[in-house]
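worker-03 picked up job from queue 'complexes'. Input manifest follows; two sequence lines, order preserved.
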Amino acid sequence: MGVSMEWAAGGVTLPQGFRASGVAAGLKKAKKDLALLVSTVPAAAAGVFTANLVKAAPLLVTAERLRKGTAQALIVNSGNANACTGTEGYADAVAMAGMAAAALQLPEELVLVCSTGVIGRRLPLAKIEAAVPAAAAAVRKAGHDAAEAILTTDTVVKEAAVRFSMGGRPCVIGGMAKGSGMIHPNMATMLAFLTTDAAIEAGLLRRALKEAVDQSFNMITVDGDSSTNDMVLVLANGCAGNPVISGPGLEYQTFAEALTAVAVALAKKVARDGEGATRLIEVQVKGARTLNDARTAARAIAGSNLVKAAVFGRDANWGRIICAAGYSGALFDPSAVDIFLGAEQVAQDGAGLPFSEERAGRELAQDPALITVDFKEGDYSATAWGCDLTYDYVSINASYRT
Amino acid sequence: MGVSMEWAAGGVTLPQGFRASGVAAGLKKAKKDLALLVSTVPAAAAGVFTANLVKAAPLLVTAERLRKGTAQALIVNSGNANACTGTEGYADAVAMAGMAAAALQLPEELVLVCSTGVIGRRLPLAKIEAAVPAAAAAVRKAGHDAAEAILTTDTVVKEAAVRFSMGGRPCVIGGMAKGSGMIHPNMATMLAFLTTDAAIEAGLLRRALKEAVDQSFNMITVDGDSSTNDMVLVLANGCAGNPVISGPGLEYQTFAEALTAVAVALAKKVARDGEGATRLIEVQVKGARTLNDARTAARAIAGSNLVKAAVFGRDANWGRIICAAGYSGALFDPSAVDIFLGAEQVAQDGAGLPFSEERAGRELAQDPALITVDFKEGDYSATAWGCDLTYDYVSINASYRT
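worker-03 finished. Artifact:
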C-alpha cells in the first residue's frame, strides 16, 4: 500500500455509525439468510452493477435509488435471486425494501435492496416480512452476522477492513462479500458491500468505487458466468468527522487506495472460495503495452478451464498459459514472452526452457499458486485471481437446486 | 438439407482420387500418430485458421502455402503440437512437410503440414522421418486409418461423407476431424480435413469453407479455450468431372450446402466427444433480431460451465440459460424470452412457468439434450453444440501431460 493504513479485524460495522444484523428467515434451511445494514445518518452512496443484459429486480430498484447518491440502509436476502420474475418481482423488491424502511423507520427511498440465490422463482415475501422486525431489532455491531447471511454456496464468511487517517481523523473502511459460483470479470461480479465513516462527496465516491472495482472484483473469475444479480455498493456516512473530500488530491488518493485495498482483499477471498476450489491462483501479467492488454491477458489465463485444471493437477503445462493469453484479445509478441510458475521459469522468449517438473509442480501446489507472464514490451502490469477447477466444482453445479 | 444428397459411410478417401494412411511413428504410446493424405492430382485448396494470437509453426507454413490456392498432400502428426517452439519449430514444420514431399515425390510447396498435441516441446523429427516412408507406402483408400492417427484425447474416430450430384456427375465430400479439449467457437476450433472430387475454383472454395465453418466448427464449444493449432482444410481435386464451379449460382449453392452438412456432422461429433462428456448439448436460439445475436447467444449458452454442469446433473436450472444469454453480448428483451428443455417449456416471457421437474430432467438426460430459447423478436436463428461438464473433464485436464 502506498498510503499508511493498517488491516483491522472486522467488516461492515467496524466504521463508526454502522450497525448490522443477520437472521434466519427460512429462505435457506436453518441458516442465516436475511441481512440488514444501517447507518445512523444518511450516507453518500454509490454502486457498480452487473453487465448482464438480464438484471434482477432488486438491482433495478437499487440502481434507481442510487441516482441521488444517498442511502441509509440495505436489506439483503440469500436463497432466492428475485431474477427473471417479471413485473411481480420488481414489486416484490420494492416491497422488501419497504419492509426494512418501516422496521427501521427510514424513508423508503433511502433503503437499498439486494437478493442472491436461485433465478426464476418468486421471492417468499411473507417469510421475509415475518423476519424483518427481528432483524431490525437485532442491528448492532454485528457485521459478521450480516456477512454470514449473504452467503450462498460460499464456504467461509468474507470480511475485510482497514484503518487509516485523513484530515487528522482516524477513518475506517470495512466490507463484506459473497461469491462462489458465477464469478467473472468485467462487471461487478458478485455481491460486496463496503462501508466507511470517511466523509466524501457522492460523485467522488462513485469514482473511487469504480477504480477499486476495476482492480479487484473485475479481476477475479471462477467460472466465466456473470450473474444477473451482481453488485458492489459503498456507503460513506462521514461519522469520522474528516473534512469532506470534495475534489481530487492527496486525500482522495488516500481514500481510493484504502478502498481498493479492502476491495482486493475481499475479491481474493471470493476467488479463493470459488466452488470446489482447493487454492487461489494469482496471475500477474507485466511488460504489456497497455493496461487493457495486461488486464485482458491476466483475466483470460486466470479464467481458462485448462489452466485451472492444470493447477489442480499440479501439471506445469505452460503451453495452456500462453495459449490463453493468445486468445484473450490482448496484443503482444508471442516470441518475446517469459513465463514463471512461482520462482521457476518455464518459458523464455515464447519457447520452452528445460525446467524441473518437480519444482514447478511444487510451485503450483502453493496457495496461492503464482503465475507470472512477462510480455517484455511495455510498462503496464495487472493481476488477476482465480481458483483451480476440481471435481467438486462439477459436483456442486450438477445439482445446485436439488 | 435443401439439396438432394445422401449420407455415405467413409471419410476423406471416399471422394475419387484421394488416398490416405495412418501409422504409428512413436510420438504417442503404441497408437497411430502420423497421417498422410494425398490427391492423385493437384487440388484447389483453402483453409481457416485459429484466431489465437499464438499460432503454431505448421499452421504458419500451411497458411503460406495455401495463398496460391493449390495443394496436393497433407501430413499430420498427433502427440506434439509444434507450438511455442520458436524459429526451430518453424524449420521443423518445413522439414516435416519436406519429408512427405520426398516420399510422395511431390513439389514441397504442394504439401501442407499440421500438428496437434502438447505445446512447447520440439517435434521429434527423427521419429517422423523414420515413419514417413512407411506411411507413404501405405496410402490407399484408408481414410479411417488417417482419421485415427490425428486423434489426441478423443475417444472415437470422427468421419462423415455425403454423395450428391452436380452438372450431371456424382460427387462426394468426405471429412475427418479431431477435437476433444480446447474446442471453442469463433475460429477454426479443432482439426478438420475435408476432401471432395467436385471441381470448384479456389476462391469459391474458400468462400464455401467459411460459410460451412461459421455454421459448424465455429458453433461448437467444449471448454472455451482456443488452441494455437486449430485449422480446417479443404481439398477439391475435380476428379468427379463436373464443370468447374466458377461463380455463384445453383451449383455453388449445392456444393456449399453439401460442404456445410459434412462440416456440421463432424462438428457435432467433436462436441459430443468433448473431454469427459456424457452427451451432446444442442442449443437453438430463434426469434433473434440478427444472425449475430442468435449465434452469440447460442454459443454462450452451450459454453457456460454452469449450464453444462446442470445438464450433466439433469438439473432443470433454466435461470443459468437466460443468464448466459444475458452476458453473451447478444441483444434481446429479457421479458420476452421463452425457454424449452426438449419439449418441456420452463419459462415464458422471461419468467418461470410451473413445469414438471421430472419431465424436464428426463429431457436433459437425452443425447442430445435440446435447449431452445426463443427471443420472439425477429427472424434469425442459430444452433450451437456443446457437451456436459463432468468429473472426467477435470480428471483428464488435471494431468494431460503426465
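worker-03 released lock.
The longest helix of chain A spans residues 250-272.
Chain A has two domains: 5-272, 280-398.
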